[in-house]
């Protein structure tokens, strides 16, 4: 499927920038939109964009997807073969501090993208959901399990996105795939996420807050694996079958959950410093364990994420140290108050 025109929303974000880079390398033309939300360091977002903007087949439009008229203008003037909607207000804990940000970006923003897609009729609309839709379901999480007990507003907006997309797939035969990402990490990752914040604390010699005393297991997915899964899915839109609309949700996870304390030990090893832990109770909205059943992803794509956590953390640590040493783009401004929340 060479030289497709792909719209990537949230292109200045962690997953969006990595995906756009890969799509450009594969020969696609990428239009990226992002409102450069100040939720975390805008310098990091600009640095991700700067790398993409060197590519002639990339164009960037600053755009707030919650602005209905502006999104309508985008789809009036451009058409896309595929859309990958990654823009969102992420973070579990922050959804208690600033619920409006989630309503605007995740609900209104996605509604506007769906309307644009209805008119522009891409061959495939993919959108980011999250492992958090499973709440405290029994792991491993399979797409057939109930996901209607969200423990945070963030999770509720992601589940709502899935239902909104289903209705468009049903009513308008718009092929839609919901991507249930499981804690994606690696170089260029979000500074509000636990691995990044732990690294900052370890290197600075500050105590790092560890919730539920580290007794949490997460299915950590390396960024290149997440991108590989999305790229393979892009060219495999779901088909309508009888009365079933062209719609599916898929887990994108590593299916090998790891204890938080093990991740901290790996960070210590690869950063070359000992951590001081501040052991704290469980925080509201968080879940004890995540683990993806990736049977469906394997069936559709022939691929499942499998980068070992040791390798992934080593690559992250190398990038993190280079960045701090000034060999990468400018060190971020402070992230928001997402203290060590491992659940994205
Ligand atoms: N990183 C993970 O572990 C993870 C896990 C599960 C789900 N997700 C989902 O995957 C997607 C990408 O996550 P990420 O980690 O790259 O997050 P990110 O915050 O780095 O990227 C999201 C981007 O969307 C932009 N954005 C926010 N609101 C916008 C709006 N109204 N209009 C336009 N742009 C807007 C932000 O500026 C940001 O650059 C998100 O939908 C997130 O909820 C991520």
UniProtKB/TrEMBL annotation:
Keywords: NAD
InterPro entries named in the record: Epimerase_deHydtase, NAD(P)-bd_dom_sf
Start and end residues of each NAD-dependent epimerase/dehydratase domain: 6-253
Record-given protein name: NAD-dependent epimerase/dehydratase family protein
Lineage: Bacteria, Pseudomonadati, Pseudomonadota, Hydrogenophilia, Hydrogenophilia incertae sedis
């Amino acid at each position: 499927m060479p030289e497709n025109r792909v719209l990537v929303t949230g292109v200045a974000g962690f997953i969006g920038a990595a995906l756009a880079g890969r799509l450009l390398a594969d020969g696609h033309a990428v239009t990226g939109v992002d409102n450069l939300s100040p939720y975390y360091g805008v310098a990091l977002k600009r640095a991700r964009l700067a790398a993409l903007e060197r590519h002639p087949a990339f164009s960037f439009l600053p755009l707030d997807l919650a602005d209905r008229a502006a999104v309508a203008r985008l789809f009036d003037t451009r058409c896309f073969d595929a859309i990958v909607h990654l823009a969102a207000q992420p973070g579990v804990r922050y959804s208690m501090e600033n619920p409006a940000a989630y309503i605007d970006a995740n609900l209104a923003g996605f509604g506007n993208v769906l309307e644009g897609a209805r008119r522009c009729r891409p061959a495939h609309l993919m959108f980011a959901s999250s492992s958090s839709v499973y709440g405290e379901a029994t792991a491993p999480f399979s797409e057939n399990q109930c996901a209607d007990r969200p423990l945070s507003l963030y999770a509720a907006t992601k589940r709502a996105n899935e239902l909104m997309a289903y209705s468009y797939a049903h009513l308008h035969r718009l092929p839609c795939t919901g991507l249930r990402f499981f804690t994606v990490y690696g170089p260029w990752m979000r500074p509000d996420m636990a691995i990044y914040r732990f690294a900052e604390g370890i290197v600075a010699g500050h105590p790092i807050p560890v919730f539920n005393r580290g007794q949490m297991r997460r299915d950590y997915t390396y960024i290149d694996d997440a991108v590989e899964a999305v790229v393979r899915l892009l060219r495999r839109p779901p088909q309508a079958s009888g009365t079933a609309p062209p719609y599916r949700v898929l887990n994108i996870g590593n299916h090998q959950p790891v204890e938080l304390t093990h991740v901290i030990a790996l960070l210590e090893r690869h950063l070359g410093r000992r951590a001081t832990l501040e052991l704290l109770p469980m925080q509201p909205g968080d879940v004890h364990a995540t683990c993806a059943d990736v049977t469906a992803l394997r069936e559709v794509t022939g691929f499942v994420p499998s980068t070992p956590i040791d390798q992934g953390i080593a690559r992250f640590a190398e990038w993190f140290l280079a960045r701090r040493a000034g060999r990468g783009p400018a060190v971020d401004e402070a992230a928001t108050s997402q203290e060590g929340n491992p659940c994205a």
